[in-house]
């Protein structure tokens, strides 16, 4: 940081810390407090160097900077080259620091040297890139370029991002230049590039080569056009991961049934490059979602009640080791009451109650199963509920809520100290949604949030 500021005190510096565990985080906190020109963004988990660079690009765009320089922070790239790159940027849209043009140099030795040389040479040939360097992260951009370069469409989060980014820039017909650099090997530690990244890069290069023979249609919105901020961390570094085809004027209760097969309509989904939360932007929410859920009727669910009960019995087996011999249990989103019916049989000494927004489902639970159930949302009923539940359960509820953080905070407020909260929700890091992509069946209008284990943990920590 000081080396950059010494070149020009007018530079602003952004550091994106990818959940470092070597004390870097604490050092950066102290440094940022003492320097108004330094902004530090700490990410809660390692999300990849490509993801960090995309976040930096969007940050520069949203904060209306004119130029952006990206580089490694381990002195592999010399800050003294920055003025040369910015000078070249006056007549170019994109400048890359090159190890392989005349005057460039790399300290790589052994297999790393030859892999880098061959990879850059092959990429230049098969992708039609005229510069000598494709993979270094030492780059300078005119930020206006990001209005044309669709960062939502660049998918690579690892080191293959650098190759994909250069290819996309090459395809939009802008001025590209390179300046010679001396790439110095790391002063401390070993390279963070995993060997598996070599195979990912080969795969990515093959895909980029094949894409030259067919017109790739991108329906994802450029981050320059996205006005939404992340629900969880309020950052604007978001990209679109599913464009969606929802007509939000035609929401009906039938599409919000538990057994809904409304899979043709898909929501717009954004992903935060800082905290990794995937979410539907608030502007796409139905205005009367509580009313929609209150009007849900689901006869198909009753027809499949045997399989539903088996599912809940398995859930009971999973949570039983965490439950005391007796106590009070609340189920939020209890629907027709089948879980509470199974719970009553297994734990007759417990008191229990359900909360369910569907008027039809809550009435079924009361009249047909004799399950005590309150109609409405948790917020509607929280004043009438106890404040000392030993256990609260919410099966497949979080992803439906407009404000899941407020919901979890309310749950925390009505649980006993050391109480148990059991829940299930979507996991977008599972192999199945990754395999299915935009055809994943649970990509539905009724689902407003798409969690993974890390974002779920962040929500729970924030709610206490």
TrEMBL record:
One of its GO terms (cellular component) is membrane. Belongs to the glycosyltransferase 2 family. GO terms for biological process: glycolipid biosynthetic process. Residues 2-147 form the Glycosyltransferase 2-like domain. Keywords: Glycosyltransferase, Transferase. The keyword Glycosyltransferase applies. One of its GO terms (molecular function) is dolichyl-phosphate beta-D-mannosyltransferase activity. It comes from marine metagenome. This is Glycosyltransferase 2-like domain-containing protein. Gene3D superfamilies: Spore Coat Polysaccharide Biosynthesis Protein SpsA, Chain A, Vaccinia Virus protein VP39.
